[in-house]
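Lab notebook, bench 4. The sequencing result for the construct came back, and we need a structural model before the next group meeting so we can plan mutations. Quick request posted to the team channel:

Model the 3D structure of this chain.
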Amino acid sequence: VLTGHEPLTALAAQNKPAILFGAHIGNWETTGVALALNSKPLFIVYRAANNPLVDEIISDVRRTYASGMARKGSSGARKIMKALKDGHHVIMMVDQKLNTGIEAPFFGRGAYTGTAVARMAAKFGCPVYPVRTERTSNFQFKVTVEQPLTLTDESEEGILAALTQINKHLEGWIKARPSQWLWMHKRWPK
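Done. Here's the predicted structure in token form:
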């Protein structure tokens, strides 16, 4: 089941960019498939798997439903910016463990949080859609595209406020379905 995707479909018809963010909840890979079938294929930002053979398999599968892909990092940032300029809808999973970024509150503790969503949304003036996938039964999923955030403040205070807002979304999703959050890395540095 896919809900809330109509605004993305309207943006796609006008070739306007959007940024989506999600987390490793439910089966997050179904998000890209559901939106490719019902709205527009997504440009996926990803962290490469440690094993190159596994990474190749994952990438081959994603290519079947993605408009493009970029690895996180500086080389990927250039590809992401080009994708947004070209009107793509870019998705990032933002619950990644990082060693840099801005320390934003996450479950009451500071956690390094990537700034790309907030900075690129402000730079390109595009809406930011929270999107989550929930497992509703063994083989059924619900993908929900929530109301967009408007992140326009490029100041450091504005970026921190945006990251705090994004992390609050993640917290709500995780609290609602804690058993569906897959995370194996140390999220908090201290």
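The beta strands are 2-3, 18-22, 42-46, 66-71, 89-93, 102-106, 109-113, 128-137, 140-145.
Will bring this to the meeting.
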